[in-house]
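Handoff note, outgoing to incoming analyst
You'll be picking up this chain. Sequence as last confirmed:
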Amino acid sequence: QVQLVESGGGTVQPGGSVRLRCEASGFPFNLYWMYWLRQVPGKGLEWVSRISQGSHTRSYPDSMRSRLAISRDNEKNLGFLEMTVLKPEDTAMYFCSRDGVGLYRGHGTQVTFSA
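Most recent structure output, in case you need it:
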């Protein structure tokens, strides 16, 4: 079955960075776009980034573009999201997904900004 497992979250100091990891299994990873989404309690999922099958296209929200870098390793069925210069509003649960609405996503990894 489709399985996505996120890791790499934690508590980050002001201006710090974090590298999130996604392990995919149960489907042909190299045939799907990969997405990162985030959610804070009481709010819906927010799209954070996406990357095409061969990594030729990478997209980010304009407000976050300068602080994000998405990548993937199709040989190992892995996806990554690096976030730099973390801000308080980045505190959220982060999910990787093979679709843009999080229909197939993992349990998430928590990133917490700590002043």
